[in-house]
What does this fold into?
Amino acid sequence: MSQPPGKKGPLVMIHAFKPPLEKDKDMVTRSWDKLKSAILKIFNEEAGELSFEELYRTGYNMVLHKHGDRLYQHVEDLLKERSQELCAKVETETDVTFLDGLKREWQDHKRSLRMVRDILMYMDRTFVKQNTKKPVYDMGVHLFCQHCVRAPGVKSRLITLLLSKIEEERNGNKVDRDLVKNSTQMLMEMGRDVFHDDFEVLFLKSSEEFYRIESENFINANGCPEYLQKVERRLQEEQDRVGACLSVDYNAGEGGIKQVVEHELIGRHMQTLIEKEGSGLVWLLENRKVDDLRRMFDLFSRIHQPPSPGQLSGLDLIENRMAEHVMVKGREIVGSGTDSDGQEAKVDHLKYVTDLLDLKDQYDSLIKDAFKSEKSFINKLHKTFECFINQNPRSPEYISLAMDNHLRGGKSQRTGAGQSEEQVEGMLEKALQMFRFLSEKDVFERYYKQHLAKRLLSDRSQSSDTEQKVIQMLKSECGYQFTAKLEGMFKDINTSKTVQEQYRNHLAQAGSADASTEGSVDLVAKVLTTGYWPTQQTVQCNMPQEIDRVCNVFKRFYLAQHNGRQLTWQVNMGNAEVTAKYDKPYRINMPTYQMVVLLLFADPSSSALKFTDIEEATKIPAPELKRVMQSLACAQYRLLTKDPKSKDVSPTDKFTYNSSFTHKMIKFKVSSIATSKETSEEVQASRNKINEDRNPQIDAAVVRVMKTRRVMEHNLLIAEVTKQLQNRFVPEPLVIKRRLEGLIDREFLQRQKGNMKVYEYLA
Amino acid sequence: EVGLPARTMAALKNLFSRKKDKPSSGVAASPPGAGGAEKRDAVMEMFEKYREKDEEGGPEQIGPEGIFNLCNDMELEPTDVRLLILAWKLGAEQQGYFSKSEWQRGIEGLRADSAEALSARLDSLQRQLASMTASPSFREFYRFAFRFSRQDGQKALEVDAVKALLVTVLPPPHRHVERLVRFLEATPSIRGFNEDQWGSFLLFSHEVAADFSNFDPDGAWPSMLDDYVEYCKREGV
It folds into this structure.
């Protein structure tokens, strides 16, 4: 039943049980000799003549007769010898043929082992298993590893050659990748630990050094963008290389080759790259190099753990440096309100706001395009804006002025051309973004109210839809309270239109006692509810008779409809159209005060009037009157002449009708109520008023908190009150403390007996 | 000055108590209740001695004159703190006057039946208070002093009165008093103290070290005391 020669394949044959042979010892030796010569033949690739079945049976018998350990030992010795032989062989190879040779011997050896394993499979399955020894194949590999690959003459040569091949390739030369791969695969097959201890450790170390040197050379010689491009390429190459040459997964985790390379190429140099003169982060941001920035972002995001403790991750570095830079740019725009002499700086407030909006746009788009709209970048940008915007205490005013400019249909700062409604709305939305960053929102409210009042009263608002949109935006930002008064102002204007119509009808009715007489004055009145509009102190002035009469007519009419109300004429907010005859008849629009003064000169026979005369006649307060006279006699349209001809008005000056006045336009406007920024005195006054207004708000917040909490410790109370108010302004702890003392005095609160630091609510 | 407008000695009348007609004094052993009755009588005798005789049907009270006399009899200056202690113990409502009920309750409570006894009692009270300025009863006295010294209807005590009162009620070796007085003199914007500031100062004087080493600027001290500390640090006192 023998098999034809050369054919392999285990055949399980069932033999009758044979009694143990007497010639035991002999049998063992003979059996082993047979096997040994067979194995040697296998080694010499002369396996063709062997009978698999017979050999298998031999092995089987040995094991069956309890000689498994002898068999095993013999095989082991044999394999060990063989490995040593092979080792000697390999050692004779030259460097050029070394790897090839080793590979060849390894492949052959494996083949041999497979055959030996097949022959001795019974031993593997029984004896080896029972005695938990290494199976034949594994034992063979292990011995090859011990006595060949790890032999001193082979090991170091192997590793050195491998590493040098890798380096060669890194330097751009072509290398037989398969050869390298086979060698590393062999090491892997010998055990992960073999691979790691013999090869990987050195591989990582040499890679580290290689890339360290390379990166240092390169970074000194190149700008940031070029370096980043190179790194990107290098990383890709290394990934390919590792896949092709080594048997490791490039992306495998901690301490692996990927981390090493990224650390050397990127991690060590992040700070340098960012700070590079003329090509670093700031330069890239300023010149909007989106591709390079994106690359930097991608590469740096790989560095989660910083190179040394206490430092930041890659993205944090970028984020911080960007924020630093934006802070610098922001501060340049914002200044601090005073320049180097401590004098109030001259500020173009419209440019101020436009510059801020431009800066925000610039960085919004950079974050979107280059930094993948990373949330923490956006937050950092906002925090930075918050910081510098509030460093200039006049920011709220300027923002309101900029919005005022747009709402009046102001020209675009940049192009000088008019703007469409959408453009305007876009600008206003952006301006509101800035509003969100303000910490003193109550200051903004105050100015916005003032500017809105001027717009509404002088009818200069471009589009009431746009105005309403802004109000809605403010309402959703800050709540109903913030915009209630503003909406009241709109209501008043609309109501006034209705009232005006009714008044016209009333006058038109025939037989009405108030009907206009020939040559009388046409009055358009707006009725404002006191609480809504910014408070102004107004002083009456003596009006010409006809004006007085007409005003009273209106007043009577209105009060007849609305009993119980009180009307006060706001003479400093009105304007008049006056027909004045110089060389030709002009129609001049001017504020009420100017009109009153000018009418004093209506009589052609009137002579020069002194300042004091005018003051006496009109009862306009002196500081205001000075401004009025300046606008009539020293400004663009000199409707009066002043004697002396200086720019300043003094109480002894004399004024006369300027008979030589002429202008090409028939219709023009004198000193309209333009919106300008406040003088420093006015700013101070506003600031005082704001601070005053804040006190009751603080009190109210304290009472609200204490009513709920009943008992609260000093510092906690201050924190809670600050939190409640932060949507409008940020109160100083010292100010809150003073208000607390006031509330104690007014018996809203008391201190807890025995504990000064705790307050109790007094119902 | 504490509580007394000045009257000249010359305007004083000599007030003598009207001796009541007592039953026979030959009784050797007095019945138990009689001791109390005698005491009460002595108290009312004193009252009669000092009370205002001016108005008919007017309120029964001891007026400024009487108090002045009482002070003489006790050998006290009218500005002495012991008079203030007396006012406190009597629960006097109004400066310069002790009502009948205040007197009766108060003097009985003090267990004094003559000016000398009263004087001795006040002496011991003063020593007591001076030795335990952190105690609740001193705190009570301290607060009383403030309220008592105020003008009617005012919430605050004006600064000159504050200075005098502090020195009277918290004499040396009390910390901070002297310096606080100097601070008040240097800060004319402070016109007076409210109750909170007055009360807080007592606690302050106990808690805060003379060199301010344990002063907590974030503490809830009234801001006037914060300013005081700043002043001392600035002036190097």
Remarks:
- Chain A touches chain B at residues 714-715, 733-734, 737-738, 740-741, 744-745, 751, 756-759 (CB under 8 Å).
- The two ends of chain A are 114 Å apart (CA to CA).
- Chain A has a mean pLDDT of 85.
